[in-house]
Design a protein that fits this description.
Distance between the termini: 115 Å
Low-confidence stretches: 1-37, 39-45, 63-70
Mean pLDDT: 81
Length: 542
């Protein structure tokens, strides 16, 4: 049973008469737990007291950090089932740690964490990416002589793989024997698959050789992972096919995953003919292709511009009752858009939605790129709005395509509106789209100078504020505008900024600035007086 106190303590003092004095508030732990610590204090070599104090202090710190004023008061007969139930019910990881540590404080009443509570807590910690705390609990399990099973290690391996830390998965794997847990074939294959998935291919192949040296026999699963590793490199594709042909001789008949991996690898390398032959062989061997296999082949056919065969495969999937996924549709839409058939791609999008498949970023990006390429800007803007209504956030690359499209047809005002929308939406370019981002800003400023010069200057100031490079042509456009307007001081200031940015004004720009100043009467009269004085001085010297 759980009850929550409404107050908290601020200062805790321990005296050597084993009395606990609270300066304010209520007790966080029952007195008998503090009494156990007091008894342990008489033995300076006792490590139990140190562990208990650390746990209690950590719990208090967690409570203060969370702003919590509560603590659990357990029943006299606490069980592992109660702790498990509370941990499962609590979503907040910090509160979950408080529950676990407060249960640890009940060691004075004879309670002990077992495999069930430890494994659940470790699972919760790694789900929240608290890997260090999870590994500390492993050490505690060893110290408390709690049985550590392989399942705990498998969950840690997978968690490290999820956050793209394959080397940490290998590190924990090599520590298994320290915890009296011998790795089985499952552990070896799990770590091997993580290394392959993260493209640590040389390390993965060394790990596989070590696995075989340790007496782990080959299986369909391990050979599938090995084939996947070899398919990632064009130089090892032949080795992957050789292993595939040898699998039946080793008592490991290929399955759908094996065929799918090889077909995907061949398509990625542009070997569509071989992929199609393997697909036919797969069906002849009564090995049913999955949606992943179909999608891989469809993507390969679209990349080789064989759209008819790709669409035939999509129809074949429908006949066989295999439901295409979002990647299947996206692959065909990409092929249609690259082939100049964006209207058909839009129809495919509607079909996809009608079958309750929500388009993803890839599908929308493919369509917008295709529509912009064909100059169908109105349709591309509608797709962008549809994308936002679905809750997806367009990136700088998508905005860049639409803005470039408006610039191509000289609609610079509309292009500037989308630039403003990007800024207001907090959408920033990444390293790949930064050059496009810089280019379209300069193009929009240059275009606005003819019809909307004030807005062009405001966008120029925004570019300087956000650190976007300004090219010489943009400076020239602004300087020419201000010179025609008669604002020579602003034009001269722009020339100063232009030189400071490393852009050298050309002859046209200098002529525009000098001519503007020369057209002013006072400047011309002063220059003529200076000229007369210089001529007079020269004649006197003669």
């Amino acid at each position: 049973m759980r009850t929550w106190s409404k107050s908290y303590f601020s200062v805790v003092k321990f005296d050597f008469n084993r009395e606990l004095i609270f300066n304010s508030g209520a007790t966080c732990f029952p007195a008998n737990q503090w009494a156990l610590i007091g008894e342990c204090l008489s033995d300076v070599k006792c490590t139990k007291v140190i562990n208990l104090i650390i746990i209690l202090l950590r719990t208090c710190l967690l409570m203060l950090k969370m702003g919590s004023k509560t603590m659990i008061k357990w029943s006299k007969r606490i069980t592992s089932a109660q702790v498990v139930q509370l941990i499962k019910a609590e979503r907040d990881i910090q509160k979950t740690m408080v529950i676990f540590d407060s249960a640890t404080a009940e060691y004075a009443n004879g309670f002990r964490h077992d495999h069930q509570t430890f494994s659940l807590m470790i699972s919760r910690l790694i789900s929240a990416n608290h890997f260090r705390s999870a590994e500390e609990l492993l050490c505690r399990m060893k110290e408390e002589k709690c049985n550590i099973t392989e399942d705990i290690f498998l969950s840690i391996f997978r968690a490290y793989g999820r956050v793209h830390k394959p080397l940490d998965a290998v590190r924990v794997f090599h520590k298994m024997k320290d915890y009296q847990c011998d790795p089985s074939q499952k552990s070896y294959i799990t770590v091997f698959a993580i290394l392959v998935g993260e493209n640590q291919l040389s390390l993965a192949l060394r790990f596989y050789r070590n696995m075989r040296e340790m007496g782990i026999p080959p299986s369909v699963t391990s050979l599938n992972v090995l084939i996947k590793a070899l398919c990632k490199n064009s130089g090892t594709m032949d080795a992957a096919l050789w292993i595939f042909r040898e699998m039946p001789n080793r008592g490991c008949p290929p399955d759908s995953y094996t065929y799918g991996t090889l077909i995907n690898g061949l398509c990625r390398l542009g070997k569509i003919g071989e992929a199609k032959e393997l697909f036919k062989e797969m069906e002849a061997e009564a090995c049913s292709p999955t949606v992943v296999t179909y999608t891989s082949l469809i993507r390969g056919l679209c990349q080789s511009k064989d759209l008819d065969s790709a669409i035939n495969l999509l129809e074949e999937m429908a006949r066989k009752g295999i439901e295409p996924n979002v990647f299947t549709y996206s692959s065909i839409m990409d092929g249609l858009c690259k082939g100049g058939c964006s209207s058909q791609a839009l129809e495919l999008l509607d079909m996809m939605v009608s079958r309750r498949h929500l388009p993803n970023m890839i599908a929308y990006s493919t369509l917008i790129h295709g529509l912009c390429k064909e100059g169908k800007l109105q349709e591309s803007v509608e797709i962008l709005d549809r994308m936002k209504l679905q809750g997806l956030r367009p990136d700088a690359g998508l905005y860049g395509k639409i803005i470039s499209g408006f610039c191509d047809i000289c609609k610079f005002h509309e292009a500037a509106n989308f630039l403003d929308e990007m800024v207001l939406g907090g959408i920033s370019p990444n390293r790949l789209t930064w050059s496009l981002h810089v280019r379209i800003h300069n193009i929009v400023v240059q275009g606005l100078c003819t019809e909307h010069p004030n807005r062009a200057f405001q966008l120029y100031l925004s570019m300087r504020t956000r650190g976007i490079s300004i090219d010489a042509k943009t400076f020239d456009s602004l300087v020419n505008y201000f010179c025609k307007k008669g604002d020579q001081h602003k034009a001269a200031h722009l020339v100063d900024e232009m030189v400071l940015d490393g852009c050298i004004p050309d002859e046209v720009t200098w002529n525009a600035v000098v001519s503007g100043f020369w057209d002013r009467r006072k400047v011309r009269e002063a220059a003529e007086l200076v000229q007369v004085e210089l001529i007079g001085t020269f004649l006197n010297l003669e």
